[in-house]
Amino acid sequence: MTEQFTVHREPAGPTGSSPEGVCAPDYQFGRVLSPVGTYDGDVVPDSICAMLVVEGSGVVHQGNVTTGFSTGRLLVLDGALPMTVEVTRPTAHYAWRFRSSMLTTPEMWAAVGSSVTAAPSVWGPARVLANALIGADPAVSHSADALRASELVLASILSTAVSVRRA
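Structure (tokenized):
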């Protein structure tokens, strides 16, 4: 997962983000600790990204769209577009990227550029699943079933969100 974000401008103190995760053929996910700084995301055609912010804040720039994020927010982003993430407060977040999945439906594309707020009781299962899969045997974490479980948990967060704010 280290290829997910590269340091564009080195922040003061510890440099760069500290990601750990799973890179499977059709999806990638992980947990990332990012100090204050600016990071460029990879461009992957026909993909959709999600970022669940556990703590911290900043903004994501994608084309003409700027989406703010803070603790307890889930962002849905177009993975095929260049993105720059500006971290304004040290951030702990989970990141997912899916290709050829249920999250690439027209309904999900309509959520791209959105920042969704949900209670920890709603997004907690995504954290639990991601943490379990990060430490799992690759036969499990890289499986189609793990992909589907991750998609379903994120779709559930979006469908039960407290509020949606378009950037």
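The chain has four helices and ten strands. Residues 65 and 107 are 19 Å apart (CA to CA).
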